[in-house]
Amino acid sequence: MDAVDNPTMATVAAAVRGKDLTSKASHFHRRELKKSPEWDEWKRAEWKQLDSMQVCNMFGPPVTRSELSGRQRNCDVMRVVWSYLIKLHTQAKKASVYGDGRPLRPVKKSLHKTYAACTSMTGLRLLIGLAAYENRLLMASDAINAYVQSGPLEKTTYLVVNNAIREWYYERFKIFLPPGSLLELQSSIQGHPDAGANWQGKVNATLTAMEWNRTKHEPCLYRREVKDAPDQLICRQVDDMLLAVKTEEEYQEFNKEISKTINMDPENKLATSFNGIEIEQTQGYIAIRVEKYIDKVNKNRGWEKEACSKKPKSPLNDTLAREILDSGKGATAKTSEAMALEKEIGFPYRMLLGELIFACVVVLLDKGYTMSLLSRFAEYPAKVHYLGLKSVCRYLHETKDRPIIYWRRIPMMSLPKGTFVPYKKPDDAMYSFPDDPYPVTADVDASHATDMESRRSTGGHIIMIFAAAVLWLAKLQATLATSSTESEFMQAVSASKGVKWCRHIMTELKRAQSGLSPINEDNMAAIMMVNQSRPTTRTRHIDIQWFAIQEWKQAGNIIVQYVRTGDNSADAMTKALGWVLHNKHAFKSMGLYGSPYSYGEYKLDTNNSTNV
């Protein structure tokens, strides 16, 4: 998250709300920004936004409410919402205008489903992993005012003119719009219920006409075959596109072609960030981080200058984790008792929790268990849960530059040499990976009956490709398990679902899954349950859905194999560990020991690589 660094602006911010202006959302009204000496810059940002919309013929002629009543009754009227922010990576001021999402009339409205793969980021990480292994370049493009370009709304819609629009309109057209004026929208606007569906249809139709094929299992990923050349790949997140191409010329040609239909803003350089994720592209690897994001999370709370510990540590030490589990619920959110505790601690629990969950979802899987545990108390945090969040922030402050690294198969000499050197693998570690790099693999674990209230188990898995994580989960299991073996068995099923999903995506991208996907499990009894072709006296009470894993094994999709607990990286997703074991598991799953599919100093010696 980003904050305004100007001292005068910070003073205004503190006086108004006690918060900084962040890149996630604005907590300020326009009248408050006008008090800042930077107001001229914000005003230029407003006018830039409105000018770009006018270029697309967004606004029709103005009308008054009285004229509207007599002319057109079957229409929507929307209020304006402005958002003001400073972009995290470029520090540019940005003002955006939206509809408020609630047409004033009629009251009844229809909602359209759209798809934006911005939740788990699995498709994005798969693309980055493929780009690294196949020696591709990652380059980004952004559609300018995407919703404005997506065509007219189904129903006539008018936008209520506010002061910002009134000032801009007078400056550009020398016409004063009195209070109560409305502007007809000639195209979609973000915030209208139909706008997302309109953009979805527009961009998919455009890419289809360009012979891009969208994958069914991850609709944000696209592939295009190129004659006598390697294929091209795209990850699209709403209006942002990340291309994996072999040459910059392919990228330039793509932007030239798509710009015939959609107005694009190409970066024209190697991507260094994408939707909050920092990207480092080097000769030997592609690394993704959220270092700047973590800096802003700590800075916004005044924690950026806290001294780092001289000793390595894990997100939660065992003592604090046990206190959190044993303490139970605190006061319900928004009650007087909860508000008093929040004031005493000095930060809102759920706000900080959400900020940290984002970092965990996109890159920092090493705090997956901690975030799963603390999320259970989002509605009723006690003091110990606040202390847990503070412990996570302290841990992130010390490990903020920790990346996930996807290693290249051979060096890409046109790129700069990276500075990261793989950590030395522990002497006692015995890791196994398929000889074929393309099959998806997974580590699975479960901790039985760890929730003190429901006695449900905590399950976790990490799914990898090219020996680095692309999908992970740490979650309280939905079904109560009667034994540790049962909880491990159910988690193996959950992990296998994720593996099958990733295998389907890879197959649609024409990356054949020729071998079995290993599911690494440290419970021999659970492995035996998978290998049984029928229920036994110990398993016949388990719901039939869980036995699908037996069919997946027989179909040749997966193989469940034993791994020592000390080598099972998913162990860190189900319980609080000491820093030695925690880091060992984190380093393996994040690719920090190197890769068995890489070269030279980056090659990981697996000792016992398997051929499956």
Strand order within the widest sheet?
8-9-10-11-5-12
Query: Count of helices?
Result: 18
Ranges with pLDDT <50 over ≥5 residues? 1-26, 106-110, 608-612
Assign the structural class, choosing from mainly alpha, mainly beta, alpha/beta, alpha+beta, or little secondary structure: alpha+beta
**Main sheet specs:** 6 strands, antiparallel
Shape: globular
Instruction: Domain count, please report it.
Output: 3
The total of beta strands comes to 21
Helix content: 25-40%
Radius of gyration (Å): 26 Å
Overall average pLDDT: 88
In summary, what is this structure?
The protein has helices spanning 7-16, 30-33, 39-55, 65-71, 122-133, 163-173, 195-209, 248-258, 291-299, 318-327, 336-345, 349-362, 368-375, 383-399, 484-508, 524-531, 548-554, 579-589; strands at residues 59-64, 76-78, 80-86, 93-99, 137-143, 157-160, 181-185, 213-214, 221-226, 229-237, 240-245, 264-270, 273-274, 277-281, 285-289, 404-407, 441-447, 458-465, 468-476, 517-521, 558-562.
Describe the protein.
The chain has 612 residues and is an alpha+beta fold. It folds into three domains: 38-275, no CATH class; 291-399, no CATH class; 428-602, 2-Layer Sandwich (Nucleotidyltransferase, domain 5), CATH 3.30.420. It is 34% helix and 19% strand. The protein has 18 helices and 21 strands. The chain has helices at residues 7-16, 30-33, 39-55, 65-71, 122-133, 163-173, 195-209, 248-258, 291-299, 318-327, 336-345, 349-362, 368-375, 383-399, 484-508, 524-531, 548-554, 579-589, and strands at residues 59-64, 76-78, 80-86, 93-99, 137-143, 157-160, 181-185, 213-214, 221-226, 229-237, 240-245, 264-270, 273-274, 277-281, 285-289, 404-407, 441-447, 458-465, 468-476, 517-521, 558-562. The strands form five sheets. A six-stranded antiparallel β-sheet has the order 8-9-10-11-5-12, with helices on both faces. The protein is globular, with a radius of gyration of 26 Å.
